[in-house]
Design brief:
Elements: H1 9-26, E1 46-52, E2 62-68, E3 75-82, E4 86-92, E5 96-105, E6 108-117, E7 119-125, E8 128-134, E9 136-139
Parallel strand pairs: 1-9
Antiparallel strand pairs: 1-4, 2-3, 2-5, 5-6, 7-8
């Protein structure tokens, strides 16, 4: 009994080479890397602290106190009185901030408190270290 293949060896080798080419093309090679184009290669030192407030007829301006860390046990960073529904401050990155807004509602005083942290993250973009900042957002609006 003769078990010879109907195709000569050179055609079988050619078939193996041709079938392996698409697989090799899919492998990620460092030389094939395409940079994102929006890489910040120097670590930023600042971020934005954004505050959302309620401005209405009873509260045309709102006094706020901003703290480094938690409002209950941290250092007072600054005081301000705001007459806008949103405001942004430039602050240090990788730091937790909290704020207290003081509202009037009839004879009552209502305090709104919130906190968040600015963050610095990094990633690798074709061999370059790239940095990204996440701002902090504090919602100090009155509940509806």
């Amino acid at each position: 009994m003769n078990l010879k293949s109907p195709l000569p060896i050179r055609f079988r080798l050619l078939g193996i080479v041709l079938l392996s080419m698409p697989i090799a093309a899919c492998l990620n090679n460092a030389n094939d890397c395409v940079p994102s184009g929006n890489c910040t290669s120097v670590a930023p030192t600042t971020a934005n602290l954004k505050l959302k407030l309620t401005i209405n007829s009873e509260n045309a301006s709102v006094p706020i106190a901003v703290y480094e860390g938690d409002a209950s046990d941290s250092v007072l960073y600054f005081l301000d009185t705001i007459a806008a529904a949103t405001i942004s401050y430039t602050v240090a990155v990788d730091q937790r901030y909290s704020a207290v807004a003081k509202y009037r509602q009839g004879n009552l005083t209502i305090l709104a408190v919130d906190g968040d942290k600015t963050k610095l993250t990094s990633n690798n973009d074709c061999g370059d270290r790239c940095y990204e900042v996440s701002d902090a957002l504090l919602n100090l609006k009155l509940a509806q």
